[in-house]
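Shipment paperwork, digital attachment
Item: protein structure file
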Amino acid sequence: MLLEVFLVLGTVIIYFLLSKKKEETLPFKEGWWGKGQKPDTEEDTTVRPFKVETTEEELSDLFRRLDQARFTEPLENSCFHYGTNSVYLRKVVSYWKNQFNWKKQVEVLNKYPQFKTKIQGIDIHFVHVKPPRLPEGQSAKPLLMVHGWPGSFYEFYKIIPLLTDPASHGLSDEHIFEVICPSIPGYGFSEAPHKKDFNSVSAASVFYELMLRLGFNEFYAQGGDWGWLICTNLAQIAPNHMKGLHLNLVSVTNMGFTHLLSFLLGRYLPGLFGFQDEDVRRMFPFLKKMLYRILLESGYAHMQATKPDTVEKFSTWTDIEFHNLEDGGIERKFNLDDLLTNIMIYWVSGCIVSSMRFYKENLQKGIGTQKHERLTVQVPTGIASFPNEVMHTPQAWAQKKYTNIVSFHFMPRGGHFAALEEPELLAEDILQFVGKVEKEQLWRKKGE
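Attachment content:
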């Protein structure tokens, strides 16, 4: 009888352990996002070269619309508190019509090799840049970089040379990368899904197929904005293939009682909740720096998560204080050519509506209800926490989700669009993170 009891208990324990281990991996999402029904034939896996092209008709249509633009006069002394100030907007439109050279920017876009390939029924666009040179005996490390909204693959154009040729830019060449920057389906030059329910897990599954198709069985991934969630899901789907995950935005959706209590007491008892001094400075007073700011900046997300078929984030997402300036401080950290190039990618590809739909697909079932939100991330993780990010997540919160954080740095400056705004800072943090993972071979230990 005693032996039978032990056997039953042993079976229960083994079942529990195996079930728990299985639960830690997010299922790969096999889908068909093309038009109509999935054909019986095998999908064409050819990787085809792609170049951005433009026509005179596109430009004529754009200039006609800009000429017909109507501007509402702003409230006196409103600066950017009500959104883009139309006084400054007139200047931008004038520059767009009279000085911005889209054909020249097309040449800039085409300076890096671009491709398309069919995955799960839709064309996936991506930039693929290999190092111009490699020291003897060294190989390039594949790095997937994923953008968000209202960004594009162009966000990474300033950081790509720092990662593929770091020595030429004053950085250590101990680690050199081969960079792959895809356009999220429905963004830029990736085909939009033709069916409902294409969410971050779908995108992660598509990008996983992309990396395998390119011959990368092991790789690193980096992202902010939607790139944070897509790369996080990819780490949950294929933890044995991702050597490391680097993020410049982190959000934790499953909040426990301790988290809620920290909102009230974290300012006075930071050590009790694992907060550092910089966490306290960025988070408190909580109503002003966290709650009110989220409410102020998230109206677009509610609209796009509910009725996306029915937008000046490069200002206040770069520095909240920029809303006190009539020009929104936009040209303090960016130049108009870069911002208008990003806008033109949306315009010429006609993707603005499909890009907004991504919010509904990810949020329509509610926050905290998806399986990936309940699962942890075991992959070695590095976090670059920029001070002007819309929402600050302390390491003490992040490590509940990312259980293997090996690098967490408070960055000295910068905001939401880190790769475009502070490419050197972000590149340095990626390099030191990968250096730590490689030196200690942390990716081999994550399964232990």
